[in-house]
Amino acid sequence: MLPLEETTDYRDMLFAFYERRKKEMPLYSYRMMGQKLNLDASQLFRILQKEQHLPTRCVPTAKTLLGLQGRNAEYFDFLMAAARSRSAAKRKELIDKAFALRDVQRRSLEDKELEFLGHWYHAAIRSLIEVSRGNAEPQDLASRLIPPIRESQATESIALLKELGLVKKLPSGRLGLSETHLTASGPDGKSKAVRSFQQQMLKLAADSLDGISKTERDISTLTLSVDNECFEDVRSMLQEFRRLVQKRVEECTHPDRVMQLSMAFHPLTNNRKEGI
User: Confidence band (pLDDT; 50, 70, 90) for 104?
Assistant: First the structure.
């Protein structure tokens, strides 16, 4: 099961369970998992793809299947209620209640997490450490970034990554990536930090139009006319695309560069219906 810190949709818990069982037993199928939940395979598939919600009657069985008890089971309930809510305000309230169930150690890192999100290069340094096979020489790391940063900034970044547990020292003396990941959702302060981080990344994307050769980047735009159903479909397609990209990157065993993928799907007009 995904750690609570990495889960913002209850269906991610179900999908993580399915993927883990599939790795343990290659013949494990949607039909087999569906039988446990009293669902047919096609319905389970739509639930895992976030096209449908888990029927209420299946919730107790699902929590048993996932091994959820106490705080974890309550977390699942809050996320499920949030996903079903049509009110943005209510959804945020429920997610905040879910986040409040996280352990004290996780919440104590919040200030450092905000610091991590404050500068784009922290994430880039972490990935660059992987590309450079654990090299933690600040001067070298700083000079390889685009745009380059100061050596002192790279030094501070490495210290922050260690403190957050995002990198760890290996027996060889080099640094390695840990399995720890930071979630991008949370309280208002963190949401603002995430927006700031995204703004920095989008600015870097814009700067790359002039600063990076076309052979080393891929930037395109689409201007679309959609209705609400199409809008939701495209959002779902983007979510699935991100998942597929992450899965493909996990299979990359010898990375040789650090790339940033930024996707933006936003309105250019007011959603106002006239003459109806």
Answer: very low
